[in-house]
Design brief:
Elements: H1 19-49, H2 65-93, H3 104-109, H4 114-125, H5 134-145, H6 162-166, E1 183-185, E2 190-197, E3 204-208, E4 211-214, H7 215-219, E5 227-229, H8 252-258, E6 268-270, E7 274-280, E8 288-290, E9 295-297, E10 299-303, H9 312-317, H10 321-324, E11 327-334, E12 337-344, E13 352-354, E14 376-379, E15 387-389, E16 394-398, E17 403-409, E18 423-424, E19 431-432, E20 437-440, H11 449-452
């Protein structure tokens, strides 16, 4: 029904005796309009759930303008992301390496309240979704970000919210762990960005070609990195590889826990056999972090930093990206020495969960305007035992995707009896999954004089 209103509406003053009459007429007219609109909404809902059957004239679903704008924006951002990733892949196939080129977007991001935006996103992803809509939403997400829904441990209807779907566990056996005891496996599903051995003063990790950051800035000034002074590089040759061989003596971990040292990156350099590996998780990847080896986690540090994005474009434009962002660092010893895993937060991924510390929370509102560079620290066991984990055990989880940086000691060739040497079994750009080998080493004894003859 269409109502036509004349251009000229006569002005009149109602008779006081007829006020109640006009009031009742307005109430009747308003209730009639509300019932009409409710009937149309019910008809639209039935048509949508019946595959869109029904009259399309007069019953079209009215989407608010803000929702349409949001959907269009998300679509444009997704198309731009896919375009950028395709260009990067084409360049990498041609052997062209991306270089650091700061732009105005990086400056603009510093002005945005990314932490508050990420908390709002976290709230939205925690909202319960109607059961009937869950499979459609999750399948749409999987198509957009190339997720494998066949690996999900539960039916899609049982994931109440997007957050539960993001951090979903997998079916048993989907991620077999390499059983080789002389093998270090990947803690996450992702793409290998950087790896190598630390050499030279400062122990620098290359973010992209043309810019690097120090590992001490990433892990914290009080980290237990096995560093030595410039003039004592020969002393580390005789350092025992297995720090838990003699339990009667205090390990260097216990000494460091008692009086941690602050390393000067200019006047110190890493010991031989200290490696790193940077793995990027896309939004569609499996988001849980597993233990790469059998190790004991002694310390957890939480740096409440920014929440810049960590995609390919961000790494090329934002200086000190992984050092600037909020992150959680886990440190402890394993059979070959030092091990640390840094879980880097990002925009909309400010929430990092620790299965070994369920009460731990990240991306909390700051009490001060400027965040402190001093991390919030927890020592799990000052006696040197800590949290014992087996290779493949679940450690933490991201909401959506982000980046993991591993720093670890591994065997290298020395002048002594051992001829073992750790070698990476991956290359930059490789896709890797939890449990697959990052690198291996082999123990071999040198031939004696009788065998040589």
């Amino acid at each position: 029904m269409k109502f036509r209103v004349p251009n000229r509406v006569p002005v009149f003053f109602p008779n006081p005796t007829n006020v109640s009459y006009h009031h009742n007429q307005r109430r009747y007219f308003t209730s009639f309009i509300i019932k009409k609109l409710q009937g149309q909404a019910a008809t639209q809902a039935r048509a949508s759930f019946n595959g869109g059957s029904g009259s399309s004239q007069g019953d079209s679903f009215l989407v608010p303008g803000a929702t349409v704008a949001t959907l269009l924006m998300l679509g444009v951002l997704h198309a731009r992301r896919m375009y950028d990733e395709k260009k990067v892949e084409e360049a990498q196939e041609k052997g062209i390496e991306c270089e650091f080129q700061p732009d105005l977007k990086a400056t603009f991001l510093r002005l945005l309240p990314l932490r508050s935006i990420s908390r709002c996103w976290g709230y939205l992803t925690s909202v319960e979704i109607p059961v009937r809509l869950r499979p459609h939403i999750y399948r749409a997400w999987a198509r957009a970000f190339h997720s494998n829904l066949e690996e999900a441990a539960l039916p899609l209807e049982e994931y109440a919210s997007l957050r539960e779907f993001f951090v979903r566990s997998l079916k048993e056996g989907c991620r077999p762990v390499d059983p080789d005891p002389q093998c270090l496996v990947s803690p996450v599903d992702g793409t290998i960005l950087r790896f190598g051995e630390f050499k030279g003063p400062g122990a620098m990790i290359e973010q992209v070609k043309g810019f690097s950051y120090s590992v001490s800035s990433l892990l914290g000034a009080s980290s237990f990195l096995p560093m030595v002074a410039e003039g004592h590089m020969e002393e580390d040759v005789d350092e025992p590889e297995n720090i838990s061989t003699n339990k009667s003596k205090k390990s260097w971990w216990r000494i460091s826990m008692a009086s941690p040292k602050v390393w000067d990156p200019v006047s110190s350099r890493p010991m031989r056999g200290l490696f790193y590996c940077v793995i990027y998780l896309k939004p569609g990847d499996y988001h849980r972090i597993h233990s790469p080896v059998d190790w004991n986690i002694l310390v957890r540090r939480h740096f409440s930093g920014n929440l810049f994005p960590v995609n390919e474009r961000a790494t090329r434009t934002i200086r000190n990206l992984y050092v600037e962002n909020e992150r959680v660092v886990l440190e402890g010893p394993w059979r070959e020495g030092f091990m640390a895993i840094a879980a880097i937060g990002a925009t909309n991924i400010g929430s990092i969960e620790l299965f070994i510390e369920p009460e731990f929370r990240t991306n909390q509102p700051r009490k001060r305007l400027l965040h402190s560079k001093t991390p919030e620290k927890r020592v799990y066991d000052p006696e040197g035992v800590g949290m014992k984990l087996k290779k493949g055990d679940e450690v933490a989880a991201f909401n959506m995707g982000s980046t993991v940086v591993m720093v670890f000691q591994a065997p290298v060739k020395k002048n002594g009896d051992s001829l073992s040497e750790f070698k990476f079994s991956v290359k930059c750009g490789d896709r890797i999954r939890v449990g697959e080998a990052l690198g291996r080493w082999r123990e071999q004894q040198p031939l004696n004089t009788s065998q040589k003859s």
